[in-house]
Amino acid sequence: MKDEPRIGVFVCHCGTNIGGYVDVPSVVEYARTLVGVVHAERNTYTCADDGLTAIKKAIKDHNLNRVIVASCTPRTHAPLFRSAVADAGLNPYLFELVNIREHCSWVHMKEKEAATQKAKDLIRMGVARTALLEPQEEIRISVTPSALVIGGGIAGMTAALSIANQGFKVDIVEKDSEMGGMLRYLNDLYPGGRKASLVMDEFIGKVKNHPKIEVHTSSTIKKVDGYIGNFTVSVQNEKVPLDIKTGIIVVATGADEFKPVNLYGYSGSGNVLTELELEERLKNGSLQKLDSAIFIQCVGSRGEGRSYCSRICCNVAIKNSKLLKQTFPEADINILHNGIHAYGTYEKMYREAQELGVGFRKYSKEKPPEVTVDGERMRVKLYHELMGREIEYTPDIIVLSTPLIPHPENGDLSRMLKVPLGQDGFFLEAHVKLRPVDFATDGIFLCGSARAPADIIESINQGYSAASRAAIPLMNGYVQAEAITAVVDETKCIGCGYCASICPYRAASMNEKTVVAEEVSYITRKSYINPALCKGCGTCAAGCPAGAITPNHFTLPQIMATIKAFQQPGAYIYDRIKA
Amino acid sequence: MKSVLVIGGGIAGIQSSLDLANRGYHIYLVEREPSIGGHMALLDKTFPTNDCSMCILAPKMNECNAHPNIDILSYSEVMDLSGNAGDFTARVQRKARYINEEKCTGCGDCTAKCPSKVPNEYNGNLDKRKSIFLPYPQAVPRVMTIDREHCIYLTKGKCGNCKKVCNAGAVDYEQKDTFVDLNVAAVIVATGFDMFDPTHMQEYGYGKYANVITAMEYERMICASGPTGGHLETAPDKEHPGKIAFIQCVGSRDLQHNPYCCSVCCMHAIKESILAREHYEDIKPYIFYTDLRAVGKGFEEYAVRGEKEYGIKYIRGRPGQITEDASTKTLTVWYDDTVNRKVKGLEVDMAVLCTSLIPAKGSDKLAAILDIELDEYGLYKSRDELTAPLDTRRPGVFIAGYCQSPKDIPESVAQGSGAAARATEVAGGAYI
Amino acid sequence: MKQIIKRTKAYYCVECGKCSGSCPVARVNEGFSPRVIVERALSGMKGEIEGDRELWTCLTCEACTTKCPSTVKFSEFIRGMRSSAFNSGYTSRCSQGGLLHSIQRVQSYRDIVQNRLQWISDDLKTSTEGEVLYFTGCLPYFENLFSGFVNPLEIARSTVKILNKAGISPVVSPNERCCGHDLLWTGNVETFQKLARLNIEMIKESGASRIVTSCPECLRTLKLDYADFFEGTDIEIVHISEFISSLIKNNDIKLNRAGIMTYQDPCRLGRHMGIYDAPREVIKSMGELVEMNKNREESSCCGVSAWATCEGNSKLMQIERLIEAKSTGADMLVTSCPKCLIHFRCAVHNQIPVEKEKVDIPVVDLTVAACRALAGE
Lengths: 579, 432, 377
Known about the structure:
Chain B is built from ten helices and 24 strands. By secondary structure, chain B is α/β, with parallel strands linked by helices. In chain B, strand 20 and strand 21 form a beta hairpin. In chain B, helix 6 packs parallel to helix 7. Chain C folds into three domains: 2-87, CATH 1.10.1060.10; 97-245, Rossmann fold (3-Layer(aba) Sandwich); 253-372, 3-Layer(aba) Sandwich (Rossmann fold), CATH 3.40.50. In chain C, helix 12 (216-225) links the parallel strand 2 and strand 3 (236-239). The longest helix of chain C is centred in the middle third of the chain and has 18 residues, at 189-206.
């Protein structure tokens, strides 16, 4: 410790949220008795303007060098108090928030005395820790002002166009020889029935003509190095390998259609088709006149093995059934389904199909339809639960609505990018609710069916969304990295690599080091934690068998002091801990 | 610094504002209600992770409040928009809240002394709030608002308690509506939705039977910070229900009311059933559905878990009628059992109507002000619903969230961000 | 059948089952499900619907139709299917051994002579020509069949008395025929059309521009099902309850207090024609109205329609409704349909599986009650 702690404690009433259950004045009195505390006061709302002003004033008046606010959760309020402390000239990390609302008043509403005592205990523990806090510095990382989009489908093209329109260079890396992704195989699009080729040509035209976009077709990602702002992506195309430096990466690799081999008589040829195969026939005009068609929904989804609903297949079947009915008005078209998922305003499309005379027959999950193919002749048996009987159809074609499934290459890409896949094999976003197109790893974003099955509109929405998220660091030109990071003591590191295997942000890695010891020098592995990637979660420190890793701001002495203070009720003596 | 106007402070508008503010734009976030937060602030948990809604939303609300680039204009409405993309002038009415926003500390001394109690619309009218109030403890901005319809001083010239007790001198009965003109490069409209009132669907007895409630009321009831402290209460004795029926598509997927599917009700009913079971192990939840549309990421799995781990009974069928036993207040839900093909009456202690999410009140008026179109449902119409979902017919005016088309929270967040990207393109002059 | 599906928008059915959940018959008759019937039609099973005795079970009360989220006109669908079944040789299981249907069919012959005006006593003023025509309906025939427990013609007399009170001497025609409602709803469209043509002829001859009915079925039939026949004319058709309520509104008549009443919404008047308020206004002007739990759109049917369905289940429905009426504490159950009156009285009159005192609430026709309450009579 360079300086003796001069701690100020601010206890918040939070209106009646805390004040109604915790005896705040007695908590303040108690705080004053703690060694190291030179000032304690209470505020109705410490987070309100007058509360923040009181903090700043006390720092000046009492020459405080540490501040504690005893109020609510740091998740919502730590940034606010930190910036108030910084305004008064203190390092913002010389601040501690003690949560006496969630931990005391809210959970002990009926035990006011116990709640008050617990508040005192928590503050005592906070004071012990705060005395040992040290200043931390946030680092600024400069950002290469360009983006790399993996995948040239509708989502990737949308993201690329938007980022480019926001003023940044974009490289699109597309593994196929042409852009367009799934659009290349589609016939008409819903809603509205526009030709897929028209939409695709419009987007490809815009991309190709954009001065800030460079397209690399027939190219695959081989290696990704670096971190937000400073990625280097190695790309292999048929000609030469290429290293692209980029500030951010957007993953827009789409998905594949599941081919239901051995299900419902599907063999890859004949008249049992997948939706994409039907689209192909519709597109090239090779569909023969038909009297009857059966669509079967949820083939290979919503069951054992592949549990998810592929979201778009009901709408695709509705779109195609409409088209068949419009082409062959006399034909008997039935969709056998396990619930029609025409969500949102797609309900209208469902109604339109009904108006045209498309039949919708429900099957039960326990007794799915049975298909028998005997040469040209096909039979579909449906057990109709509502009527409690079987119905038999003899269709000319059977269309199987199969789910979109993740690309087999997702695994490789996820390892290179150090981003996770979900259980279903699709890329996993940072937070399913509030960060749908972010990865937990900074600087990498996600859109389209690579995330989960999405239709055209949704892919476009997400493309824009990823473009917005990606443009933030690009426009700022820098990112502020976390100040609370872990550091490695190389003298203690035994090079086991456990930290690198458990780091959720892939910040820990093993470097080869030459160690010179007396007359011998040898090469060994030492852990390195990249401060630009580290989030300060402490997983590595907890896991390190050699105790070589310390998370700044949560050092072992700080944590031990907290625990010791818990064990010593009453007015705690700071010197005892020090000893 | 270029400015962007964001209309609507729900999760979509908040996301737009933060994305833009974090890249250096100045944001005017205009919200009609006293607090930003929208409907998400009124939910208990969110599907499919059961994250506490306010816990994940409040940091974003506070970030908006503390952000140097964001001005929140709460209790305000946009009255006019002139000019063109890149150079709009928006006229905003700042409704008198009779409180000096600079002075108010949100301490609540005034609320404690206010004698006027009115039904609390932020708690589904299940309890009372005062006429000087914060909508909820986490409200942003944390300033009081006086409800001019009900304030005794403003209506009768008597009382004045709040002014007397306010140490900050923030109460100002003389305050008038004011208007401000804002120069903005782009506009994002994210006005969300309102809830369908099922009162006139007499078959379900809402408003007539005490134990028939809406899903929004249920959310408040099961929320720990709600009017019952998280306890499900039924008439007449406030006991928690033994059986709950959730009835889907009340007013939606209904050609007599709202033809579209609201996209979220199947999922929130599953969530609400799971929450019921987490609060009380002996509750038996029933969900009456037409199609169980669990179409989002992880949703189908959530629905299956609801059945296997929480004992939700899914029944395919819309009930035709609810009747009440006048003495016990128990309800009978009349439905057609698909599996047995028999019409049955299921006795339950509570029926929750999962009502339709309809265009926000005043959408038509705002569309006229902004010169953008409405679609056949009264939602804002995209310039091209397939390829330009975020754009409207007026260049520089974008739409995001439920007001564009039915969607859940992550989709609203995605569009909130997406609209921010479009606004940036316009503000940078790249818009063609 | 394709046409029926198209006309009734049955193709919009999403199998949600709200129809069956609303159906009063399905609650007492396990074999009956509107949802299944529509699903059969959509699956192309025409023969099975026509041959199913449950086709005739539907009361066409429209409890389902009014709230169908897919706007399927189920009652019309049933009517269409019945007509199709009738043409294929199937018929309903008529109550009264089909006697009423025979009487109605007989009326479709142009040359028959009816003795249907005997009830017009000297104190009643009627005309042979004039602006207002009172369409009596089947009341004179009902009198012959059901006088054991009801007095149908009192409805007719009361109607004329009230019209007289308003200064109207209505046309009451000896050439009036059954409106054809029951035949139409049991699939016999051809005879219905014959009856309709004869009635139109009679109405046109009378010179009437306004028709008053005391029967909701006549009202519905004349107003909706005769629409094609009436094309080009400008004839107003009102139910007596609307007429009385307008008299009250204009202070043309005054009614004395007549006690506490509860009200049965006849299906045809309520859900078919949307008339809920007029009869209630009449009741409120002569007494206190206490509603049954199920009222207006949610009202339960009296259990029989078009004389096609009277069976054990009908009795169960009637008893349940009477218990509901009795439990309101009202002095009487008022209805504005002669058939509701007959069916409820019939239920009480016959053997029932519950104690009489649970159901023995007087059932009174609205017009009769209003006539009795006329001030100064």
